[in-house]
Amino acid sequence: MKILIVEDEPKAGDYLRQGLREAGYSVELVTNGVDGLHHALEGDHDLVILDVMLPGMDGWQVLRNLRAQGRQMPVLFLTARDQVEDRVKGLELGADDYLVKPFSFAELLARVRTILRRGRSGMEATTLQVADLELDLLRRRVSRSGKRIDLTAKEFGLLELLMRRQGEVLPRSLIASQVWDMNFDSDTNVIEVAMRRLRAKVDDPFEPRLIQTVRGMGYVLEAPEGAR
Q1: Domain limits of the chain?
Q2: Pairing mode, if any, of strands 97-100 and 211-214?
């Protein structure tokens, strides 16, 4: 999935680009409205994340031009403009969502996923599966070997991240930013505790074990060859 970010503040743009790439998206970043409109018209992006206050052409104009030229890709406004009339204007111009800065990256990611699911009219798979472990994204349910497993919201988010990136070793810093929306602090064991509880539910009662610790690097969820 390809996302275009139109954001003129360098730190914010880099933060968004890095976070969305780590979440598995292909990301392009431009820093002014004129380039944003050009890339949106010429590219094949699945979503545009658009600031309002931009040099060259503001976000309102970018979106107005996109819709006038028949381009219907989803647009999410991400802006410091927090007045009700600004939100109403953005939505009336054809935006799919409106998120005010400062924002939680976890919330942004959830909104991005929701917009992309909606934009693909249900074509996206609503379940993730690794071996006999299945995660239902819509009903927020997990089962293994047909047995339902009850998870907390954080455990569900952690498992979803591991399953979406199956076979990839995920460092603790990435897990902390994606699931807890925080910078990793080596003095805290919150990730280890959560991982231990998750394993006790989805791994310990079953065979084979799917979640592995890669010492000094992080965690990986992967099915052994014979279990795929």
Answers
A1: 2-119, 127-227
A2: unpaired
